[in-house]
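Subject: Protein entry, chain in single-letter code together with its fold tokens

Category: Structural biology, sequence-to-fold work with a learned token vocabulary.

Notation: Tokens come from a learned vocabulary of local backbone shapes, not from coordinates.

Start of record: The labelled sequence and token lines come straight after this line.
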Amino acid sequence: MRVANNDRWAGMGFCALLLSMVTTASGQGTFSWTLNGGGLYTNSANWTLTGGSGPAPPGIGDSAIFNILLDEYSVGFTGTTFSDYVQVSKGNVTFKSSGGLVQTFVITSGSADLLVSGGASLYIGNDVDVLNVIIADDLIVAGNSSMHIQTSSLVQAGDLILGGLGTGALYVKKSVLKIVGADSQDIGGIISSVYLFLDKDASG
């Protein structure tokens, strides 16, 4: 559920700074990750344009789709990275920082949604490579899919939607989950199950 709230980012200086950087769109393309394995998000050779126009990698104005038939792979981020919309719909995918510094993936323009669906699992960071993800609108973990926020990583979203036709699971392990939008979240459904796991050292 999307609920308009113009004060969503009030008092959050870091997010305001990131939003101020989103000024013009770099394109209006839909890009699919086509590298048969892990690699850097910023490497244009890892992407194929499947709709619209614009250069790879996807950025402001673009959609990034992860749906290759591979059990497990990692996507590395080497700086603050922007996208309009992100969907993970196959496999076990890890988004992590690369280069030894904590990086930020910013999904705050356009539809500003992150969707995990199709039975996929998305891991944010790991015990070594922490990643922050800022989502202006919906974080959606659909039926039979899961999201794992790993040690010390941060995920912030406007709204949280868990479940649907099946089971949606969200694990927060010694990390931070912030829902900062209006006071309405969709969690589960009539024919779905939801698992929200908070590690004892996690916060949300």
The longest helix spans residues 13-21. The chain has one domain: 39-198.
